[in-house]
Amino acid sequence: MKIYLVGGAVRDKLLGLPIKERDWVVVGATSNDMLALGYRQVGKEFPVFLHPKTNEEYALARMERKVLPGYKGFTFDTSPDVSLEADLLRRDLTINAMAESEDGTLIDPYGGRQDLKNKLLRHVSPAFAEDPVRILRVGRFLARYAELGFSVANETMELMRGMVNAGEVNALVAERVWKELERALGEKNPEKFFAVLSECGALPILFQGLNISGHGMNALFSAAQLSAPPVVRFAALLHDLPDAKQNITAICRRYRAPNEYRELAGLTAQYYPAALNARSMTAESLLGLLGALDIFRREKRYHLFLQTCQAIAAARKIDFDLSWLEAAALAAKSVPVQTLINEGFNGEKLAAELRKKRLERLEKWLAT
C-alpha cells in the first residue's frame, strides 16, 4: 500500500501558490484495508475515505469506463491492481495529473510540469471527452490562472468543440453546472469562464442570451475588479440580458440557484437604471425606489444591490456614488416606527404616517 499527494496541491505547490486543500490517492489497498486503519468511508460512487485525524480525503486509485452519456455514465475499477499512472490518466488536465510520493518525489507521467511552464491547460487523454463537466472545469481553471498568462491548448479546445457537437453538454446535471459556475464566479477573472464556453460553443446551450462582448460581461469583470462577492458578480453578469426577467428566472430555475442569487439578479435587472439616475429623482420617486428594494427589511441585500450597480456603472463608465444612495436609505430609515406606534398609529394609518414622515425626511435630506 502506497499513498501519494495528488492534484491541486501538487500543481499549486509547483506554481508557488498557497495550498488550500490536500487530496491523496492510495495504491494497492482495498476498502477493508482503509477501514481497518480507522479511515471513515464517504462517497457512494467510488471509495473515498477521511483520515481519522486530519479529515483529509484519501481515494483508492481507480480507473473509469464510460457506459452512458453525461456526467454519471461511468463504471469504476478500484481494485488494488490499479496503478498510480492509470489513476492519473483518467484526470482532466495534465497540470492536475501529477503526484508526489511520501519522500517528495514528483511523479509526472503526462507532462504536467512542462505544461505549467508553458502556461497551458491541456487534456491528459482522449478520455477527457467522456465527461462534459470537464468543459466547465477548463473554464474555471482559466478564470483562476489567466492572470498568470495561462491559455487553453488548441487541441483541447478542439476536443471540447467536438464534445459540444456530440451533445455531451446537454447531459450536464444542474447541480454540477451551478457548482462550477459559482466557483468560477469567485475567481480573479470570471469572465474567462464564459469566454471558454463561448469559444467551444457551449455558451448558448448553457446560458441562453449571454453575450460574451456585452455589458453583462463587462460588468462581471468590473465586479471582480472590485472584489465583490459571487452573488454580486452573478447579478452584474445577468443585468443586461434580453428579456431579463424571463431569462434570469429561466437560468436560476434551470440551475437551482440559491434564492439570494435569484433575488439580487432580478432586482438588479429591474432597478439598476433608476439607481444609476437616482440623483435626478424627486423625494417621492426616491422613496418609491427604496421601498421597491425593501431597504427597511433587507438591508444586507440593499448593500449588495448597490455594489452591483457600482460594477455596472464602472463597466459603462458612468459616475455613480454608492455612498449617496446609502445616505438616502439612512434618511428614509431614520423615522422611529415605535414612536408612531406609541402615538396610537396602527394598520393602514401607521403605514400612511410612516410614508409621510419618510418623505419629509428625504425632502429635507435632498435640500441639504
UniProtKB/TrEMBL annotation:
Keyword Membrane set for record: no
Residues binding Mg(2+): 21, 23
Pfam families documented for this protein: PolyA_pol, PolyA_pol_RNAbd
Record-linked InterPro entries: CCA_bact, NT_sf, PolA_pol_head_dom, PolyA_RNA-bd, tRNA_CCA-adding_enzyme
Protein name stated in the entry: CCA-adding enzyme
Reaction catalysed by this enzyme: a tRNA precursor + 2 CTP + ATP = a tRNA with a 3' CCA end + 3 diphosphate; a tRNA with a 3' CCA end + 2 CTP + ATP = a tRNA with a 3' CCACCA end + 3 diphosphate
Molecular function, one GO term: ATP binding
Entry's family note: Belongs to the tRNA nucleotidyltransferase/poly(A) polymerase family. Bacterial CCA-adding enzyme type 2 subfamily.
High-level lineage: Bacteria, Pseudomonadati, Pseudomonadota, Gammaproteobacteria, Legionellales
UniProt xrefs under PANTHER family: MULTIFUNCTIONAL CCA PROTEIN
Ranges of residues in domain tRNA nucleotidyltransferase/poly(A) polymerase RNA and SrmB- binding: 149-210
The protein's Enzyme Commission number: 2.7.7.72
Note: A single active site specifically recognizes both ATP and CTP and is responsible for their addition.
Reported cofactor(s): Mg(2+)
Keywords of this entry: ATP-binding, Magnesium, Metal-binding, Nucleotide-binding, Nucleotidyltransferase, RNA repair, RNA-binding, Transferase, tRNA processing
Organism: Aquicella siphonis
Positions with a binding annotation for CTP: 8, 11, 91, 137, 140
Ranges of residues in domain Poly A polymerase head: 3-122
Binding residues for ATP: 8, 11, 91, 137, 140
SUPFAM superfamilies: Nucleotidyltransferase, Poly A polymerase C-terminal region-like
Ranges in a coiled coil: none
One GO term (biological process): RNA repair
Function description: Catalyzes the addition and repair of the essential 3'-terminal CCA sequence in tRNAs without using a nucleic acid template. Adds these three nucleotides in the order of C, C, and A to the tRNA nucleotide-73, using CTP and ATP as substrates and producing inorganic pyrophosphate. tRNA 3'-terminal CCA addition is required both for tRNA processing and repair. Also involved in tRNA surveillance by mediating tandem CCA addition to generate a CCACCA at the 3' terminus of unstable tRNAs. While stable tRNAs receive only 3'-terminal CCA, unstable tRNAs are marked with CCACCA and rapidly degraded.
